[in-house]
Structure prediction request, 1136 residues.
Amino acid sequence: MQKRNRVTLLITSPEKLGMISTVTNLLLDHKANIVHLDQHTTDPQDGIIFMRVEFEAVDTELQKLEEDLHVLSREHALDFQLSSQEKRKRMAIFVSKSDHCLLELIWRWKSNEIPVDIPLVISNHDDLREVAESHGIPYYHIPLSKERKDEAEQKALELLKGKVDFIVLARYMQILSPNFISKFPNQIINIHHSFLPAFVGANPYVRAFNRGVKLIGATAHYVTNDLDEGPIIEQDVQRINHRYSADGLKIAGRHVEKRVLAEAVSLHAEDKVLVHGNKTIVFK
Amino acid sequence: MQKRNRVTLLITSPEKLGMISTVTNLLLDHKANIVHLDQHTTDPQDGIIFMRVEFEAVDTELQKLEEDLHVLSREHALDFQLSSQEKRKRMAIFVSKSDHCLLELIWRWKSNEIPVDIPLVISNHDDLREVAESHGIPYYHIPLSKERKDEAEQKALELLKGKVDFIVLARYMQILSPNFISKFPNQIINIHHSFLPAFVGANPYVRAFNRGVKLIGATAHYVTNDLDEGPIIEQDVQRINHRYSADGLKIAGRHVEKRVLAEAVSLHAEDKVLVHGNKTIVFK
Amino acid sequence: MQKRNRVTLLITSPEKLGMISTVTNLLLDHKANIVHLDQHTTDPQDGIIFMRVEFEAVDTELQKLEEDLHVLSREHALDFQLSSQEKRKRMAIFVSKSDHCLLELIWRWKSNEIPVDIPLVISNHDDLREVAESHGIPYYHIPLSKERKDEAEQKALELLKGKVDFIVLARYMQILSPNFISKFPNQIINIHHSFLPAFVGANPYVRAFNRGVKLIGATAHYVTNDLDEGPIIEQDVQRINHRYSADGLKIAGRHVEKRVLAEAVSLHAEDKVLVHGNKTIVFK
Amino acid sequence: MQKRNRVTLLITSPEKLGMISTVTNLLLDHKANIVHLDQHTTDPQDGIIFMRVEFEAVDTELQKLEEDLHVLSREHALDFQLSSQEKRKRMAIFVSKSDHCLLELIWRWKSNEIPVDIPLVISNHDDLREVAESHGIPYYHIPLSKERKDEAEQKALELLKGKVDFIVLARYMQILSPNFISKFPNQIINIHHSFLPAFVGANPYVRAFNRGVKLIGATAHYVTNDLDEGPIIEQDVQRINHRYSADGLKIAGRHVEKRVLAEAVSLHAEDKVLVHGNKTIVFK
Prediction:
């Protein structure tokens, strides 16, 4: 039996008549057997085309396909990303003291739900060392002080260098610098609480409690320089009532946070998210 | 067979040892047969007690019970509200041009889901006259101009006087004056769109579309002088994706709006909502 | 400005390398500008390919495209369906006495959410005549008796002949004969309550109440000869609690029924549902 | 400052005028400061009264209160249960090979979300030993064979004797005997998948996949001699689509299973569930 390799091609291209034919013909030339194809156009006149093609590469020489895609890219000013499932993405996890998101990610990873390698966990605290190490994941504690934040980030960048494809902030309670973010554009995923209505600023759970909200939510997004304002990947809510104390809200918040973050990480790891400006196209 | 009348008693009282005994003993003295009792204390030391008691008044003389409740009220500085289901609440509906909320309310009312009378619909436009009148509800068109807003509100107040117990703003696109609101404290229910995160200001659906949100929601609340900031009665969300246009978001928004508003109106009509400061206790 | 016509092409085909290229090339030859393309393969080796392509037909001659698709169909043993949005689908609604589903469908139709024409409503009762006629929809009352069911169905078929593309059973409480169903294969949509676990047989709401279920649901499906066992189009649930009486469950059931049915009708009307055996592929 | 102890009283009683007064007066006599009271009557004429009272026992002598409750119980043929939060419930967990439910329970327990002690985990396999022991929970492997099932259950009963208050079957893939169940009436919680419609028998996920369901669910219930038919504590669903393989359905099923089971365990541990025949009253 021939070995089958599942490959994902993501394309972002200016709208152009025949673009889908062009891409699928190229794939056919390379003997790619398409399993799923999703395509979306923002505007059929002068919009942007988003495509996700998942194919089986039986006799496909991926390197040659990639070369042809580069030619296509130059010709049509399109962006593409080719990812083979044989080569798992490498994911770093940043944490502080809360373990709920970290544990959910580790569990889904060990259950083969999230197809990644986890080369390391980085934290500004030492609290979660055992959690990581007991699952065989190296843990690096990089203490942070306001004065020497640059230094700490530099240390993290050295640890990450050449080792990871994307970063998950699993309740990492520090703000990353624009310099750090620029090294991983649309490759850093964050989770934060969300409320209807929004409570911007300190102590959102206390303020949500004081307002008597009936739903609490969580939003997973890519990190940009605008704090908590990057492209949204996934969101969900949980129903609560007046019997929840402010602490009870936090607990309910943890449940929805870990679920939404893990879902967003799955979508990213499976190349189901395309970013366009400050929004995402998610093919799920 | 004796006639059975279902009555609801709502109580808001400072925390005090024995308060529930006091109330249930009084009800027993008046031969009230308790069917449901919900009680919540914000803090057992010096908090507030909220109670909702639904009872069957077989041999209960409600007027005498009410007199005794007034005595209790003075003694313990508590607030109470006694509502007999024999006497349906009277609900006015304010609309502008959108019919989705109005139609949902009318349908639930005709299906005996919302136990109210609807003496009138008031609008700043004439568009929905037929909808109201075809269901036998008087419709009053009160045109609005910025200069003569007071006059219009005055007209509305005259129409409402002595005729209604609470008001529902079913996509009524005008801001009520503090004077108007003061006539119906915690008796005006509004519905508005909600997003995670919030988009304050103009064109929220367009901005939610531009941000690529994955959920859109609606919040029903009592109207206070802080626009859209009153006590929340009910909320819900609906999942959307990148295939929704800005118009598609508006359509999805209508569905969740009408559902949430109708649910909030039911809760209010059945005396299941107690307001405390800027939050609600909802016993459902 | 040129007139733009949005057209949808649905394809079900045996798996074959290059099939997507073949289809998109054909569309390109006919100057079809693809806006959305969704494709799914059940198995990349010997499965079935499902495709939905939505395109703008600016200079496309649809009749010629259709001819070429017929050639393709014979060549590759594939099924296709070509639907132009210029030609709205014609939907008949069958009802009995409950109005909630009918009213929701009419409202969404009048709000331009469901792009169909409604040439007639047929009922085995006369109760909902006014609802239909007040919205300008002809209403036909065909009384039913066990003995003369065939005759009644025959009458309905005559009314429908050449006039409708699909039928919605909006709480129509009669079982259609295999003969009737065979005239509208995968073109009759039904809604029925669903519970976790299932309560098969009479009085499901009473039995769900007796079991104390926490969720009630609804399932919209295509009608086949296996009662309530046809391909599922859409499902949803609603949370309930012990305070709901058996009647309260029925009310909650109505809300979820009308929502799920209307959603399924939208999906069908927009050609987003492909049926394969006893299951559906829904591209939403 | 006085030490405050939170105590929960559950009561199931035949309907009787004044019952709530009787109970709350007794509590007042014992200086119990009521924080929450929920009460529900199935029928105000000759139904059953369910009450949950949570109170602060500052100067309350619980033993004396219990004696008085026993008197009350004999007098009115009522059942009661008095649980002090100072004395945490002891929960045994039964597992087979799947770890998702076990891990979720352990995490919520370690996060102080589920107020119990976990004296032991029992399994018919040795696979999850490390998971339990790494969290300091003794793990007992009791191999099972069809011929000697009685013996294995006997062994389990000896391990549990006097040590646990309730049992959670966290994906325990064995059927307990009526004898075993009779030792823990309404004290064994199980989780199982649920579908709309139901798929009774083997391979439900494969059959749900073949039917193309749009929702998969999970039901947590008390174990009775009718397999998977005991009183329902909690249920929830998760939306899926045609892109989920049968394995993908199983993964989605795991997520909803662990969430629903953990929620049901919380409700039970906090004495929020009253069982009546084959249904539950859940005060949440």
